[in-house]
Design goal:
This protein has 229 residues and is α+β, with helices and mostly antiparallel strands. It contains five helices and seven strands. Strands 1-2-3-4-7-6-5 form a seven-stranded antiparallel sheet, with no helix packed on it.
Length: 229
Amino acid sequence: MANCSNCGAPLSGSLLICQYCKTRQDVDLAMIHRFTIEKPDSERICPRCHIPLQTIDLHLGKKFYIERCVRCLGLFFDPGELEALLDTAVTHVYETDRQRLDELQNVKRSSEYPLGYIDCPVCKKLMNRINFGSRSGVIADKCRDHGLWLDGGELRQVLEWVKAGGDLYHKQKELEIKQLELEQEKKNFQFKVIDNAFSATREVPVPAPENYELDLLPMIARLLKKLFA
């Protein structure tokens, strides 16, 4: 559990503001490594505070740039950057701590922001809200073309999720879903084969009654001719 950088009080859940001294906490990046500010202002705009984002380098073996807001401490990752960060920051996770995943999923998020869609820092179009992984408790904002936004405190929760085996759990769930889809495809194929087999063995349809009447007319005419000849 993290502690307030000002008064030292414990920070429960994913709170960014100390409930005792009201100091905003920069706890996300403190859990990773040191970082340096490369560009105080970028062309990308914070979707929460509507101010230019800072470009920072996390120094993860090489230059690793992401954007952050100095006011709300939200973070923006280009496509693939968050996954690369998690792979570097968390290693040697071989099992799932289901109790810890339950705790993370039930973390009450701060009501600092109203529910709703926010703009992409790059293209300014509304981003989609997505569940990050399975049972992480994090609802992230994603632009299909430009990247992923995490509000302040959410990166710390995602890191805890990975440490608890959340990524392993998520991949297992994806595998189970794919297996179920494959089983359903096999069943659909089997039903189609059976249906085709029955269709091939069905009897030729019986002609409609009017066809019988047309065939009988010449016969009746010949019979009447013999009777009254």
